[in-house]
Design brief:
Oligomer: single chain
CATH superfamily: Vaccinia Virus protein VP39
Organism: Maritimibacter fusiformis
Protein name: Class I SAM-dependent methyltransferase
Strand order of the largest sheet: 3-2-1-4-5-7-6
Number of domains: 1
Structural class: alpha/beta
Number of helices: 6
Distance between the termini: 70 Å
CATH architecture: 3-Layer(aba) Sandwich
Order of helices and strands: HHHEEEEHEHEEH
CATH class: Alpha Beta
CATH topology: Rossmann fold
Low-confidence stretches: none
InterPro entries: SAM-dependent_MTases_sf (IPR029063)
Length: 219
Protein backbone atom coordinates (compact mmCIF):
# COMPACT_ATOMS: atom_id res chain seq x y z
CA UNK A 1 0.00 0.00 0.00
CA UNK A 2 2.81 2.38 0.89
CA UNK A 3 4.54 1.80 -2.45
CA UNK A 4 1.25 2.31 -4.30
CA UNK A 5 0.75 5.68 -2.61
CA UNK A 6 4.28 6.74 -3.52
CA UNK A 7 3.70 5.71 -7.15
CA UNK A 8 0.43 7.70 -7.26
CA UNK A 9 2.13 10.80 -5.88
CA UNK A 10 4.97 10.40 -8.35
CA UNK A 11 2.59 10.29 -11.32
CA UNK A 12 0.75 13.35 -10.05
CA UNK A 13 4.00 15.27 -9.71
CA UNK A 14 5.08 14.13 -13.17
CA UNK A 15 1.95 15.62 -14.72
CA UNK A 16 2.64 18.94 -13.00
CA UNK A 17 6.22 18.97 -14.24
CA UNK A 18 5.24 18.31 -17.86
CA UNK A 19 4.05 21.91 -18.25
CA UNK A 20 7.26 23.22 -16.68
CA UNK A 21 9.37 21.12 -19.06
CA UNK A 22 7.55 22.35 -22.16
CA UNK A 23 7.80 26.00 -21.12
CA UNK A 24 11.58 25.84 -20.71
CA UNK A 25 11.28 26.98 -17.09
CA UNK A 26 12.84 23.74 -15.83
CA UNK A 27 16.01 24.25 -17.88
CA UNK A 28 16.28 27.95 -17.08
CA UNK A 29 16.35 27.10 -13.39
CA UNK A 30 18.99 24.38 -13.80
CA UNK A 31 21.17 25.28 -16.77
CA UNK A 32 24.20 26.43 -14.76
CA UNK A 33 24.21 23.72 -12.08
CA UNK A 34 27.68 22.31 -11.50
CA UNK A 35 26.73 18.71 -12.14
CA UNK A 36 25.93 19.61 -15.76
CA UNK A 37 29.46 21.00 -15.98
CA UNK A 38 30.83 17.70 -14.70
CA UNK A 39 28.81 15.74 -17.27
CA UNK A 40 29.98 18.10 -20.01
CA UNK A 41 33.63 17.59 -19.01
CA UNK A 42 33.20 13.81 -18.82
CA UNK A 43 31.58 13.77 -22.26
CA UNK A 44 34.33 15.91 -23.78
CA UNK A 45 36.95 13.62 -22.24
CA UNK A 46 35.52 10.13 -22.74
CA UNK A 47 33.20 10.62 -25.72
CA UNK A 48 35.51 12.62 -27.99
CA UNK A 49 35.39 9.86 -30.64
CA UNK A 50 31.68 9.09 -30.26
CA UNK A 51 29.49 9.07 -33.35
CA UNK A 52 26.14 8.50 -31.63
CA UNK A 53 24.58 9.69 -28.36
CA UNK A 54 21.25 8.76 -26.77
CA UNK A 55 19.94 10.82 -23.86
CA UNK A 56 17.00 9.33 -21.95
CA UNK A 57 14.66 11.54 -19.95
CA UNK A 58 15.74 14.84 -21.42
CA UNK A 59 12.89 16.91 -19.86
CA UNK A 60 13.16 19.28 -22.85
CA UNK A 61 16.67 20.34 -21.79
CA UNK A 62 19.02 21.30 -24.66
CA UNK A 63 22.36 20.13 -23.22
CA UNK A 64 22.92 17.75 -26.13
CA UNK A 65 23.66 20.85 -28.19
CA UNK A 66 26.93 21.10 -26.26
CA UNK A 67 28.16 17.87 -27.83
CA UNK A 68 28.22 19.18 -31.37
CA UNK A 69 31.11 16.97 -32.50
CA UNK A 70 28.80 13.93 -32.22
CA UNK A 71 26.93 13.67 -35.54
CA UNK A 72 23.96 11.62 -34.28
CA UNK A 73 22.22 12.80 -31.13
CA UNK A 74 18.84 11.44 -30.00
CA UNK A 75 16.76 12.89 -27.17
CA UNK A 76 14.21 10.40 -25.80
CA UNK A 77 11.43 11.04 -23.30
CA UNK A 78 7.91 9.90 -22.46
CA UNK A 79 6.91 13.59 -22.57
CA UNK A 80 7.67 15.75 -25.62
CA UNK A 81 11.49 15.64 -25.78
CA UNK A 82 13.97 18.30 -26.76
CA UNK A 83 14.44 18.50 -30.53
CA UNK A 84 16.27 20.79 -32.95
CA UNK A 85 17.95 20.75 -36.34
CA UNK A 86 20.87 18.85 -34.80
CA UNK A 87 19.10 16.73 -32.14
CA UNK A 88 16.40 14.19 -33.02
CA UNK A 89 13.58 13.99 -30.48
CA UNK A 90 11.68 10.74 -29.94
CA UNK A 91 8.67 10.47 -27.62
CA UNK A 92 7.76 7.07 -26.24
CA UNK A 93 8.00 4.44 -23.53
CA UNK A 94 11.67 3.66 -22.95
CA UNK A 95 11.04 0.07 -21.89
CA UNK A 96 8.93 -0.63 -24.98
CA UNK A 97 10.66 1.38 -27.70
CA UNK A 98 12.75 -0.56 -30.22
CA UNK A 99 15.92 1.42 -30.85
CA UNK A 100 17.21 -1.35 -33.11
CA UNK A 101 20.84 -0.69 -32.22
CA UNK A 102 23.41 0.32 -29.63
CA UNK A 103 24.90 3.78 -29.12
CA UNK A 104 28.43 4.95 -28.45
CA UNK A 105 27.18 6.95 -25.46
CA UNK A 106 24.00 6.79 -23.39
CA UNK A 107 23.21 9.39 -20.73
CA UNK A 108 20.39 9.42 -18.20
CA UNK A 109 20.50 12.34 -15.78
CA UNK A 110 18.30 12.65 -12.69
CA UNK A 111 15.71 10.19 -13.99
CA UNK A 112 16.09 6.86 -12.18
CA UNK A 113 14.76 8.22 -8.89
CA UNK A 114 11.40 8.75 -10.64
CA UNK A 115 11.16 5.24 -12.15
CA UNK A 116 9.36 2.58 -10.06
CA UNK A 117 11.15 -0.29 -11.84
CA UNK A 118 14.56 1.35 -11.62
CA UNK A 119 16.59 -1.85 -11.90
CA UNK A 120 15.01 -2.97 -15.18
CA UNK A 121 15.28 0.58 -16.53
CA UNK A 122 18.97 0.82 -15.60
CA UNK A 123 19.80 -2.59 -17.07
CA UNK A 124 18.26 -1.50 -20.37
CA UNK A 125 20.37 1.67 -20.36
CA UNK A 126 23.45 -0.49 -19.80
CA UNK A 127 22.46 -2.75 -22.69
CA UNK A 128 22.10 0.16 -25.12
CA UNK A 129 25.41 1.96 -24.65
CA UNK A 130 29.13 1.35 -24.88
CA UNK A 131 29.68 4.24 -22.46
CA UNK A 132 26.85 4.92 -19.99
CA UNK A 133 26.71 8.03 -17.80
CA UNK A 134 24.09 8.15 -15.04
CA UNK A 135 23.31 10.74 -12.40
CA UNK A 136 21.00 10.44 -9.40
CA UNK A 137 20.26 12.54 -6.31
CA UNK A 138 22.78 11.51 -3.66
CA UNK A 139 21.22 10.55 -0.32
CA UNK A 140 18.30 12.96 -0.48
CA UNK A 141 15.86 12.31 2.38
CA UNK A 142 12.97 9.94 1.75
CA UNK A 143 9.62 11.59 0.97
CA UNK A 144 11.18 15.04 0.52
CA UNK A 145 9.90 15.11 -3.07
CA UNK A 146 6.74 13.25 -3.99
CA UNK A 147 7.98 12.20 -7.42
CA UNK A 148 11.14 10.56 -6.01
CA UNK A 149 10.18 6.96 -5.31
CA UNK A 150 13.59 5.59 -4.24
CA UNK A 151 15.19 8.23 -2.01
CA UNK A 152 17.62 8.01 -0.39
CA UNK A 153 19.79 6.80 -3.29
CA UNK A 154 23.48 6.10 -2.73
CA UNK A 155 26.20 4.28 -4.62
CA UNK A 156 25.17 0.90 -3.21
CA UNK A 157 21.63 1.24 -4.54
CA UNK A 158 22.81 2.43 -7.96
CA UNK A 159 25.24 -0.50 -8.17
CA UNK A 160 22.37 -2.89 -7.43
CA UNK A 161 20.31 -1.35 -10.23
CA UNK A 162 23.19 -1.49 -12.73
CA UNK A 163 24.38 -4.94 -11.70
CA UNK A 164 28.00 -3.82 -11.32
CA UNK A 165 30.29 -1.13 -9.97
CA UNK A 166 30.90 1.96 -12.12
CA UNK A 167 34.34 2.52 -13.60
CA UNK A 168 34.26 6.02 -12.14
CA UNK A 169 31.95 7.95 -9.86
CA UNK A 170 31.90 11.36 -8.23
CA UNK A 171 29.56 13.20 -5.86
CA UNK A 172 28.89 16.81 -6.87
CA UNK A 173 27.74 19.40 -4.35
CA UNK A 174 26.21 22.65 -5.56
CA UNK A 175 27.33 25.88 -3.84
CA UNK A 176 24.87 27.26 -1.27
CA UNK A 177 22.69 24.16 -1.52
CA UNK A 178 22.54 21.08 0.68
CA UNK A 179 21.69 18.71 -2.14
CA UNK A 180 24.31 16.57 -3.84
CA UNK A 181 24.26 14.44 -6.98
CA UNK A 182 26.06 11.21 -7.77
CA UNK A 183 27.48 10.79 -11.28
CA UNK A 184 28.52 7.28 -12.33
CA UNK A 185 30.33 6.30 -15.53
CA UNK A 186 30.30 2.76 -16.94
CA UNK A 187 32.39 1.22 -19.71
CA UNK A 188 29.96 -1.60 -20.41
CA UNK A 189 32.55 -3.73 -22.23
CA UNK A 190 35.31 -3.42 -19.64
CA UNK A 191 34.44 -3.11 -15.93
CA UNK A 192 38.13 -2.54 -15.15
CA UNK A 193 38.74 0.28 -17.63
CA UNK A 194 40.14 3.45 -16.13
CA UNK A 195 40.81 6.98 -17.29
CA UNK A 196 43.44 9.53 -16.39
CA UNK A 197 45.54 12.49 -17.47
CA UNK A 198 46.11 11.29 -21.03
CA UNK A 199 42.36 11.18 -21.62
CA UNK A 200 41.89 14.64 -20.13
CA UNK A 201 44.67 16.00 -22.34
CA UNK A 202 42.88 14.69 -25.46
CA UNK A 203 39.47 16.09 -24.50
CA UNK A 204 37.35 18.22 -26.81
CA UNK A 205 38.26 21.80 -25.91
CA UNK A 206 35.94 24.72 -25.35
CA UNK A 207 36.81 28.24 -26.44
CA UNK A 208 38.30 30.14 -23.51
CA UNK A 209 35.89 32.65 -22.01
CA UNK A 210 38.43 35.46 -21.94
CA UNK A 211 38.85 38.72 -23.86
CA UNK A 212 40.75 38.19 -27.10
CA UNK A 213 43.43 40.56 -25.84
CA UNK A 214 44.57 38.05 -23.21
CA UNK A 215 44.34 34.88 -25.32
CA UNK A 216 47.58 33.28 -26.56
CA UNK A 217 48.68 34.41 -30.01
CA UNK A 218 48.30 31.41 -32.32
CA UNK A 219 50.05 33.17 -35.17
Amino acid sequence: MREARRAFRAKRAERKKAAIYSSGEYWQDRMDLLYYGYVDFIMRTLARDARSHLDVGTANCPYQEWFDWIPERISFDRAPPYASDSVTGIEGDFMEHDFGRRFDVVTCLQVLEHVPEAEAFTRRLMALGDLVILSVPFMWPAFMLEDHVHDPVGLEKLVAWAGREPNYHVVVEEPFRSRKRLIAVFDTADPKAGWGKKHVHRRVRREARLPKSVLPNKG
